[in-house]
Amino acid sequence: MDWIEPFYTKRSEWMGPTGIFASHRARAASIERYSGAGKKRILELGAGAGGTAAAMADLGHSVIAIELSPLRASFARELAQEARQGQLTIIEGDYYALNFPEPFDLICHWDSFGMGTDADNRRLLRRMAEDWLAPKGCVLMDVFNPWWWIRRAGTEERDEERDLMRGYDFDPIGGRLLDHWWPIGDKSQLITQTARCYTPADFLLLIEGTGLTVELFAIDGNIFRAGESSTIAHPLGDALSYFVKLVLAG
């Protein structure tokens, strides 16, 4: 996973700090629906430039946000210096290697699960269950959907505002998305992120033995559960990723 920090640092050099978007506010607001009312002690893994972490802190939560990229962590620290209803702490580092003195009511992992191998991803899930999550807590996270990425493979998008190109591809053997970025007109600077995509059935197999179990899946607020029958017309077929709520097993 040596590519992760250089990729996100370079992309952030191109894109700059992002601040707090409406999408960050909406994500933070959804926490109450899925994890219950009340102020929570939250751990966010892979916090990026800190937009969602800051939005959660604005709702009164106590948030510890972990980010590997020094540049993105510096953007997040700028947000942490602003007055907020709750608390926001930014830690620059590798969350696989970190320990905390107290467990968390909620663990969030937005838009970045699956960066490692299946073994890496299971290791992270076990750390959530064994080391970080409070007995009645839950995990909320996104999982990349292979069908969306397969359909987009071979296409490109042009971002005139940031002077960037984005190209989509997919590794069908490894089940991994390939997300390419480069400055318009200079493909020699191309950088790529990759992540394991899981169908819900594959994800249920992945979490076996990790100490976690799926309570629900969701897309755009619409809940679906393991064991439900469906067809290809299901909204999952058109979703870049889907949302998962995990709780401690047994």
Automatic annotation (TrEMBL):
Record-linked InterPro entries: Methyltransf_25, SAM-dependent_MTases_sf
GO BP terms in the entry: methylation
Keywords: Methyltransferase, Transferase
Domain Methyltransferase residue range list: 42-137
Keyword set includes Methyltransferase: yes
Any Pfam family the entry gives: Methyltransf_25
CDD domains according to UniProt: AdoMet_MTases
Molecular-function GO terms, alphabetical: methyltransferase activity
Record flagged with keyword Transferase: yes
Protein name, as recorded: Class I SAM-dependent methyltransferase
